[in-house]
Design brief:
9 strands; Immunoglobulin-like; three-stranded antiparallel sheet; alpha+beta; 143 residues
């Protein structure tokens, strides 16, 4: 005989599987808003916002703040959460920083201190357990 706790957990998993079947396959591609001038609610929750100076001094550390959700915070539930966030450089496809997130207990934001030796495009990627990988980019120039 199954315990009530096991059955409740099983029901949650089955409901999640049904929900995943009804959404587009987000895991075959890197996701972006279809129209950055008209972002949907789903895109607002999932597109990363990058906050850092547009111009920095060479080799001088500066902060890059990342918020999951361009306008509103991403949910942080056991069934729907951010798995990881990476910050890299577009010119070398190099990941400079990574943070692993835990469901429910972590806020959907982070910050990294980095320095650059040349102008580059920063690339932020975030993985969500239900909606795949989303990406945003920001050009940063060296003074």
């Amino acid at each position: 005989m199954r315990s009530g706790r096991w059955c409740a957990g099983f029901d949650v998993v089955m409901n999640m599987m049904k929900a995943v079947e009804t959404i587009p396959n987000w895991f075959k591609q890197i996701n972006y808003p279809k129209d950055p001038n008209d972002i949907t609610v789903l895109e607002k929750e999932h597109w990363p916002r990058i906050e850092c100076p547009d111009i920095v001094e060479a080799s001088k550390p500066f902060e890059v703040r990342i918020n999951i959700g361009a306008v509103m915070d991403h949910p942080r539930e056991l069934a729907h959460f951010i798995e990881w966030i990476t910050l890299g450089r577009d010119d070398s496809n190099m990941v400079m920083c990574e943070e692993v997130m835990q469901p429910k207990f972590t806020m959907p934001r982070t910050s990294f201190w980095i320095s650059l030796d040349r102008s580059t495009t920063l690339v932020v990627r975030m993985s969500r357990n239900l909606h795949g990988i989303w990406e945003n980019k920001k050009q940063v120039y060296i003074r």
